């Protein structure tokens, strides 16, 4: 049974974990997480999301920035897919939530 997707706090500021090493390959990436001795492959979309997890951008703005790269995809479908990708990044320990900021 698959775990439910996380409900994102719109004021959360996702941030890449500093200890994760990244090697870009043609717009995609291979990440190494030394804390868990794990290697992760990110396709172009997941890598784009990961790059925007800067600790300063709230979730809705982050998703909108990434969605701007996919103008030919229906917005609701795209946002659901991007939320799922962000959820996987969090669950895999590649992104932390950082500080919450007041609306």
Describe what this molecule looks like in 3D:
The protein is α+β, with helices and mostly antiparallel strands and 103 residues long. The chain has one domain (15-96): Arc Repressor Mutant, subunit A (Orthogonal Bundle), CATH 1.10.10. The chain is 34% helix and 19% strand. The chain contains three helices and five strands; from the N terminus they run E-E-E-E-H-H-H-E. It has helices at 44-52, 59-67, 75-91; strands at residues 15-16, 21-25, 28-33, 38-42, 95-96. The strands form two sheets. A three-stranded antiparallel beta sheet has the order 2-3-4. A two-stranded antiparallel sheet has the order 1-5. A hairpin with a 2-residue loop joins strand 2 and strand 3. The longest helix has 17 residues, at 75-91. The mean pLDDT is 85.
What can be said about this structure in brief?
This protein has three helices and five strands; from the N terminus they run ββββαααβ. The chain has helices spanning 44-52, 59-67, 75-91, and strands at 15-16, 21-25, 28-33, 38-42, 95-96.
């Amino acid at each position: 049974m698959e775990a439910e997707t996380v409900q994102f706090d719109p004021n959360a500021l996702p941030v890449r974990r500093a200890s994760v090493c990244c090697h870009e390959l043609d717009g995609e990436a291979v990440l190494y997480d030394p804390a868990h001795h794990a290697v992760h492959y990110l396709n172009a979309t997941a890598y784009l999301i990961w790059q925007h997890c800067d600790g300063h951008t709230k979730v809705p703005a982050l998703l909108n920035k990434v969605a701007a790269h996919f103008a030919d995809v229906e917005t609701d479908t795209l946002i659901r897919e991007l939320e799922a990708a962000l959820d996987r990044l969090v669950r895999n320990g590649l992104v932390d939530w950082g500080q919450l900021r007041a609306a």
